[in-house]
Each structure stands twice: as C-alpha cells, then as structure tokens.
C-alpha cells in the first residue's frame, strides 16, 4: 500500500532578467533545507554575476551555494544518490540534454527545480526552456517592471554602448560590453540590419 504521493517532479521558474527567478529559486531551496531535504544546487558556468561562480545570487543580494556546470550530463555525474532536491539556475545556457536529465532525475524520485530566462534578447525561445516547460508538472512565469514605461516586462532588452543590439548579434555574448534592461513588449527594440539602410526609390 502506498502512503501519499510518490516523490519526483519537475518545476520550472521562467521570466526575463530582474523578474525574480533567482529569488524564487533561493526561496524554494531554503524551504527544502528547512524541510531537511538533501539539496544540491547547480548553475551554468556562463553566469558568474555578483558573488561569482560558486553561488546563485539574486539582484537583491540573496545567495545559496551552487556548483558551476557546463553541460547537462555533468549534472547527472555530480548528483549524489541520496539527493532529493536538485535546483538548477540559468538553465537557458545549458544544452537540450537538460530535458532528458531533468526527466531522469524526476523519474527516479528527485524534485527538480529549474530557473531560467525563457526568451533571448530578440524575444525568441531560449535554449531548452520551452521543452522544459512542456515536461514540467509546474511552471511559474514571472515578469519584471519595464524600465521605460512601468508596465510589466516580458522582454530582455540588450544594449551595446547604450543602443539596442541588432537582431543578428549573437544569442550569448561572453565578456561583452553589453547591458540588459527589463522591458515590456512595446518598449522592446530589436533593430534588423535592413532598418539601418536608406531605401533609394
Ligand atoms: P532574475 O533571477 O529573474 O534576474 P533576481 O531574483 O536576481 O531576478 O532579482 C529580482 C530583483 O531585482 C527584484 O526583487 C528587484 O529588487 C530587483 N529589480 C531590479 N530591477 C528591476 C526591474 N526592472 N523590475 C523588477 N525588479 C527589479
Ligand atoms: Zn514598456
């Protein structure tokens, strides 16, 4: 006879930058620790913001320790058999193998919590986030505040030298001079290459 629901599930927290994904991930991890679960936290090695490579840090300064990984397979290698909660931040930077890894961990009884940006600077689906939302039991979609108009923000505005980055610039910029703002759909700007050209009739 079974007592209560069986363990193992996938939760996804998505949204633009500054929408509070890391805060929410940290909150869920802290509560799992209070519940005396064995927790392991990972994040993409591409994100070294604020406190550096070995923690998940929110824009508000909250933090939990995290192991940097550069592939989904590495997570599978690093998860210990007795770990019951696996949290992964900046999941958009990891490969599509993350869908299979999350599914495998949940099937074997782990609670898997993934946080990531669901759209890139163009407003298009980012890495494995869309597929992760499909296989998850629970999806939380957060929004930030548009810094231009004050509405809810659902887009990442990339700026290079203060100007909107063009559509054809790379999805992931490493060590670049770019910065990001949260903006709503209407204030989001992604100039196409042909918008710079003067049309001669
Ligand atoms: P994410 O992981 O989604 O980038 P964080 O959890 O790191 O977000 O940070 C969320 C915090 O960022 C908010 O609680 C707020 O204090 C701060 N913040 C800064 N700029 C904005 C903004 N434009 N909209 C909403 N929150 C913002
Ligand atoms: Zn706006």
The outline comes out as: elongated
* Overall mean confidence score, pLDDT: 91
In this structure, how is the largest beta sheet organized? Answer: 6 strands, parallel
CATH top level class name of one domain: Alpha Beta
Give me the CATH fold name of one domain: Rossmann fold
Radius of gyration, whole Å: 18 Å
Strand order in the sheet with the most strands:
5-2-6-7-1-8
Structural class: alpha/beta
Question: Considering DSSP H and I runs of 4 or more, what fraction of the residues is helical?
Answer: 10-25%
- In CATH, the homologous superfamily of one domain goes by the name P-loop containing nucleotide triphosphate hydrolases
Number of helices: 4
Strand content: 25-35%
Ligands bound to this protein structure: adenosine-5'-diphosphate, zinc ion
Describe this structure in words.
By secondary structure, this protein is α/β, with parallel strands linked by helices. 37% of the residues are buried. It has a domain of 135 residues: P-loop containing nucleotide triphosphate hydrolases (Rossmann fold). It binds adenosine-5'-diphosphate and zinc ion. The site of zinc ion (ZN) has 8 residues, from loops.
